[in-house]
Amino acid sequence: MGLFSFGYDSFMDKRNVDTLLEARWIIPVEVEGTLAEHAIAINNGLIEAILPISEANSRYYSSNHIKLDNHAIIPGLINLHTHAAMTLMRGVADDLPLMAWLKNYIWPAESRHVDTCFVRDGTMLACAEMLKGGITCFNDMYFFPQAAADVVLECGIRAGIGVVVIDMPSAYASDVDDYIDKGLAIRDHCLQQPLLTFCLAPHAPYSVNDQTLTKIMILAEQLQLPVHIHLHETKDEIKNSLAENGVRPLMRLHKLGLVSPNLIAAHMIHLTDTEIELFHEYGGHIAHCPTSNLKLASGIAPVEKLLQKGINIGIGTDSAASNNRLDMFAEMRLTALLAKGYSDNAEAVPARQALRMATLNGARAMGLDQITGSLSPGKAADITAVDFSSSSLSPCFDPISHLVYVAGREQVSHVWVNGRLLLNEGELVTLDEADIMQQARRWQHRLVS
Ligand SMILES: CSC[C@H]1O[C@@H](n2cnc3c(O)ncnc32)[C@H](O)[C@@H]1O
Ligand SMILES: [Zn+2]
User: Fold this and answer.
1) Which of 96, 105, 106, 178 most suits a substitution to test ligand 1, by most atoms within 8 Å of the C-beta?
2) Which protein residues have their CB within 5 A of the ion that is ligand 2?
3) ipTM above 0.95, yes or no
4) Beta-carbon count within 10 A of 124 CB
5) Is residue 88 part of a domain?
6) What is the number of domains present in the chain?
7) Domain check: are 110 and 218 in the same one?
8) 203 belongs to an annotated ligand binding site
9) Ligand 1 residue neighbourhood (C-beta within 6 Å)
10) Are residues 384 and 295 part of one domain?
11) Does residue 447 form part of some domain?
């Protein structure tokens, strides 16, 4: 009787949580280093505690107790710049420079095919690829953002949806005011959705005029929204801006008041020292997209120099039409390797920094660093588990080094967003992968015809 009541009492003393997750290594990112043999207690979508396994077991219990004995647990990866629905155009036009790619292939295809169904099916395909690759949050810029938002809510991933603006009529909107009105109406409708945030997303300095950019600057300040834009992507962008506006694009945006902590500038390849100073002084963030930049021969961003200055840099895949993968493991590795080669310095972007760029820095750029981007009590349980049991990851002296230089997305086994399991032992929980692939094949036939 005494023994029974002792066991019962001590069981009752423990706190019941939704999930108790044990792992060989936990890499919180916010604090440096690796925690060996620790556990995470997850409750109501949030990380409640991270403790050594024995301590976690003495304080918590859960009917959902998961033991990942050979895994590293990291914050979910954050894809800071993408056009999710463009997965349906993966490989339609390769080996071209940006403007030929856009003007001769992508924009004509978009004008013929992009509608709400295309964006729905393409975003589903992207979410399947991203979740299987450990991505828990993406920053999107595309037509028909309502369709992307619907998919995000259906599958349970987290996203920043772009209120896209471009001075080019489309099936989605007739002019820039129509783009803005439609985008803001979607935001108003989704204000209570914890997985959705919104950005103002003017496409690029060459496709949006001064008057519209000023309107966007005012809206960003009024609504405290990030502004997500392609910037300084090619040498031609800068040459044309000098010819048409008398200034380089970044200086033009600065004169219009857009360079601020609200700004997320994708690419930022061709920069003078003065521009780097200015960008740092005014607090902008960068979405570095190394694969897309190389594939379109746009150039190599001076990442080491920008980091040394103290600029916040996250990592993006860009679209599957210019990458051609939505693979943040590949982008992390390339970020680390390119920075070394470009700056002639093997110490540039060590593994821990590449991982931080792919997680916490992305969250910071999106204004989400109080919610996600690292594993700390009080933050959302946006978590990726990476299986280290393969011989190709053996031996392992440092799991952070392996995550960047060895592991690939094929090692991702589990993903949680807001405490909800979305990938279980490599299988998508909320998405029907076979159906998604069938829809992709249907679009492939349409695009060809
Ligand atoms: C108006 S929706 C977004 C728009 O951007 C196009 N796009 C995709 N990748 C890039 C890139 O690297 N630079 C500039 N524009 C890009 C996409 O096709 C859509 O038209
Ligand atoms: Zn882009």
Assistant:
1) 106
2) 318
3) yes
4) 27
5) yes
6) 2
7) yes
8) yes
9) 83, 98, 102, 106, 110, 141-143, 164, 166, 203-204, 230, 233, 292, 318-319, 322
10) no
11) no
